[in-house]
Amino acid sequence: MRRSSVRGQVLDALRTALVTGELRPGEVYSAPVLGERFGVSATPVREAMQQLALEGAVEVVPNKGFRVVERGARELAELAEVRALIEMPVVLRLARTVPAERWAELRPLAEATVRAASSGSRAAYAEADRAFHRAVLGLAGNEQLVRVAEDLQRRAQWSMVGGGGAGAGGGRGGAGGRGRPGELVADAHEHTALLDALIAGDLEVVRALVGEHFGGVG
Q: How far apart are CA 157 and CA 1, in angstroms?
């Protein structure tokens, strides 16, 4: 249990370092060196990095360590398209079936994304953004859907940090268009606007906002 806890803490720290750009795309990092940075042995770092390799954030470099994956504009656009294909129909279906009071319960999560974006912390925003999207999709009652969507969102959040100026958002920020504090705030406000439309049951506005959130896809 203790080893699992240490590995989990290291994994969280590495994910934060990826989002903030402390671990830079294209760079190779060894488990022993990272272990010294985090004050742990190389073993939990190596195990955490193997998990990140499964998630597509890093790739194994034999006898050297792990390279942070670099993604170009085409792959970012593909991620945005796939996320839109998965999330848009689900949100539109939920908009027709979920009562307004249930949507209203998500207000704190939407507002948390605005606070996180306003703080200027890309790591905090990335976490809050995932929590909001996870809660929305969770209303569909399909755990596999939530897992697949969150995996795609993480890949989008990590893609351009430190390389192309994009940020940690789940919409255009994560898909290759936003990264500066003001842009993250604009991305976050799309969450509150979407929630307002869902509560009001305005399907046309919901459709437009979801498409806008994924960079005009759909």
A: 30
